[in-house]
Structure formats: structure tokens, C-alpha cells
Write a structure and sequence with these properties.
- Helix content is about 85%, strand content about 0%.
- By secondary structure, the protein is mainly α.
- It has a single domain, classed as MFS general substrate transporter like domains (Growth Hormone, Chain: A, Up-down Bundle), CATH 1.20.1250.
- The protein is globular.
Length: about 400
């Protein structure tokens, strides 16, 4: 593929950040809508939280199935098709008349989002040959997920408060339509006629690299902690601190601003320092912050500190992990990133499941978050093992 002009490169990176935005809004909308859905369908909040588990497991399976075929179709085709399925899922959710229909909608959303972020990151790597510009593009695309928290979730909270959860869920269709139109401008980076055995080898080679496997494990634990935390965060604020839509929206706003700042800072830090120690610090910081729920962070005002720390550490670790993964196996980037999406989907579904079980068993949100923090400590060990498997420092 010929190198693109800088203005077009910048425009395409901005386009790729939009699917990341809509994906996160679609997945995390259960957090601000949790209590409304539980009341509407007369089920527990823990049961509603398991819709995230369902979507995550389906997304994991979809990403794994997509991995060997990532180079068979262009990013334009992948992203357009996935966004179209996401539109269907959001409309189904908005129109659901029974809890089982919500579950079906989350299944469709899982299929749609399974490899969506993988295609966004892979697309950037295909038309940006320069490593530093590519790392910056990864950070910008990741910022789409941040803006979802900064603006998307607070907006959903306000729409839910004013018009109800159905309108809040249906509103996600609007940016998805923009995604479909924007994806049409992506270059055709398809590998024209790959042999069947080449497609299978790409998948197998990813799994044979120990350094890659340990980095994938880091993503599992990262999203286990993050999704397990944020899925129940809305109910945690409402019930534990008598927080209404205004406070919850402000918390999401503060968290989003913190993460956006971290996304902007990450590329500069990664140029000056090794990615590895920054990822280690972020993994440990995320674990400690969750472990401090109810102790270090026990007041309403301290929630603003904890949400800022959680988003900053998540940003650094997520961008760092994806940067490292893109550089581990250049010839198999599509497959690597698809399996990375499977890792995040599996981690997220496990986090919602474990968080729900801990909440039901221990009876309070602080203890459930401490369980997630303890599990997050395993990511530190995975980073150490990945470094040893590489046998050299990360760049």
C-alpha cells in the first residue's frame, strides 16, 4: 500500500477513533442504565450485570473466529459490517420487551464488537509505516474509548434521566451511522488471495509466541478489573453515596478527562522511557486503587480521586499493551490484534461475572472491588514473564 499524505492519514486516524467511541458506549451503557433496567424487568442488578458477561463471551468467540481471516477482507469491509450489526443490536435493545430479548441484543452486540477495535488498530498499522506516528495513532484511537466515558456515558445518563433507558440505548445508533459512512474512506488494505493454509498459520504463530501470550494475559486481567469495576459503578454511586444522575455524570466526566490527558501523555512518555516499566507501574497502580475501595477511598469526594486514578492507569496499560503487541509479530498484526480483542472480551466478561458473584456473596461493592484489585495483581506477573520471554527490554 502506498504511503498516504499526512492530512489524509490524520483524517483516517480520526475516523478510526469513532468506532472505538461507539463500541465503548455500546458496551458500557449498562453501567449508567443498570438500575433502570433492573427495575424495568424486575431482576437484580447483578443479573443485569451478567449481560456484560454474555456479550463479552460472544465477543471473545467472535474475535477468535475472526483472527485467521483478518487479512482476507479489507478494514473497510470489516468495520462497515461490524458497525451495521451494532446498529441492529442497539435497536433490538431499545425495543426489548423481555429480559431475554436484552440478552439476545447483547449477543448481537458481542458479534459486532468482537474484532472491531482490532480492525481499528490494524488499519492504522497498515497505512502508517513509521513507528512513532503509529504509536501516536494507537493513542488517538484509544482516545475514542476515553471520549466515550468523557461524553458518551454522561450523555446516556442524562438521556435516561430525561427520556428513559430505551431512548438512551437507541441514541447509540446515531454515531454508528457516522462510523459506517466514515469507514467508506478507508483504503483497501486487503491481502488479495491468501491461501487457506496461510490463514491458519497466522493464527497458530500468534499462539506459539510466549511473549505475545503473556501480553494477551495482561489484557485479560486489565479488562477483568476495569469492566468488573465500571459495570457496577453506577449502582455503587447511587446506592452507596446517594448519587443521582448529576453526580454520576460528573464522575464519568472527571474520569474521562483524566484518561484523555493520559492518552495524550502516553506517546511522549513511551518515546522517552521504556514501555515496560510504565506498564508495570500502571498495572500495580490499578490493583492498589481497587484494593483501596472502602479504605483509601471511602468518602463521596474520594470517588473523584479513585476514578481519575483508575482511568489514568487503565489508559497507560491499555495503550502500552497494544503498542507492544503491534510490535511483537509484524507479519501477523491482524491476527494478533483480533486475539487481543478476544482477550479483552474474555477479561471483560469474566470481570462482570466475578464482580457479580463477589457482590452477591460479600454483600457490598467495596469488597467486590477489592477482589478485582487482588486479581489485577496477576497482570504484574504476566508483564514480568512477557519480558523474560522476549529476552530483551521492550521498546
Amino acid at each position: 500500500m502506498a504511503e498516504l499524505s499526512r492530512p489524509r492519514e490524520h483524517a483516517l486516524v480520526a475516523i478510526l477513533a469513532l468506532p472505538a467511541f461507539t463500541y465503548v458506549v455500546g458496551v458500557l451503557q449498562l453501567s449508567p442504565l443498570l438500575t433502570a433496567l433492573a427495575s424495568e424487568f424486575d431482576v437484580s442488578e447483578s443479573a443485569v450485570g451478567q449481560l456484560t458477561t454474555i456479550g463479552g463471551l460472544v465477543g471473545t468467540a467472535t474475535a477468535l473466529l475472526a483472527a485467521p481471516w483478518m487479512q482476507r477482507f479489507s478494514r473497510r469491509t470489516w468495520i462497515t459490517a461490524e458497525a451495521g450489526l451494532f446498529v441492529m443490536a442497539m435497536l433490538m435493545m431499545a425495543a426489548a420487551q423481555a429480559f431475554v430479548m436484552l440478552a439476545v441484543a447483547r449477543v448481537v452486540a458481542g458479534i459486532a464488537g468482537g474484532a472491531l477495535l482490532a480492525n481499528c488498530f490494524t488499519a492504522a498499522s497498515e497505512f502508517i509505516p513509521d513507528l512513532r506516528r503509529r504509536n501516536r495513532a494507537v493513542a488517538i484511537i484509544a482516545s475514542g474509548t476515553t471520549v466515550a466515558i468523557l461524553a458518551g456515558l454522561p450523555l446516556l445518563t442524562l438521556i435516561d434521566n430525561a427520556f428513559g433507558w430505551r431512548w438512551a440505548s437507541g441514541s447509540v445508533v446515531v454515531p454508528l451511522i457516522v462510523v459506517i459512512l466514515g469507514a467508506l474512506g478507508l483504503p483497501d488494505g486487503r491481502v488479495r488471495s491468501p491461501a487457506a493454509n496461510q490463514r491458519r498459520v497466522g493464527f497458530r504463530q500468534v499462539l506459539e509466541q510466549r511473549a505475545t501470550l503473556w501480553l494477551l494475559a495482561v489484557l485479560v486481567f486489565l479488562f477483568l478489573a476495569y469492566i468488573g469495576w465500571i459495570t457496577y459503578f453506577g449502582a455503587y454511586v447511587e446506592q452507596g453515596y446517594a448519587g443521582g444522575a448529576g453526580r454520576l455524570g460528573t464522575l464519568f466526566l472527571v474520569g474521562g478527562i483524566s484518561e484523555l490527558a493520559a492518552n495524550a501523555l502516553a506517546p511522549a512518555l513511551f518515546r522517552r522511557f521504556s514501555v515496560y516499566p510504565l506498564a508495570m507501574i500502571s498495572a500495580a497502580g490499578l490493583a492498589v486503587t481497587l484494593l483501596g475501595s472502602g479504605t483509601l477511598f471511602s468518602t463521596a469526594s474520594s470517588l473523584f480521586v479513585s476514578i481519575s486514578l483508575l482511568h489514568v492507569f487503565t489508559s497507560f496499560l491499555y495503550i502500552g499493551s497494544n503498542t507492544l503487541l503491534l510490535n511483537t509479530q509484524p507479519a501477523q498484526r491482524g491476527s494478533v490484534m483480533a486475539i487481543a480483542s478476544a482477550a479483552t472480551g474474555f477479561g471483560g466478561s469474566a470481570g462482570a461475572l466475578i464482580g457479580g458473584i463477589a457482590l452477591s456473596t460479600l454483600g457490598n461493592y467495596q469488597s467486590a472491588y477489592q477482589v478485582l484489585g487482588a486479581l489485577m495483581l496477576f497482570s504484574v506477573g504476566c508483564l514480568v514473564l512477557s519480558q523474560r520471554a522476549r529476552g530483551a527490554g521492550f521498546s
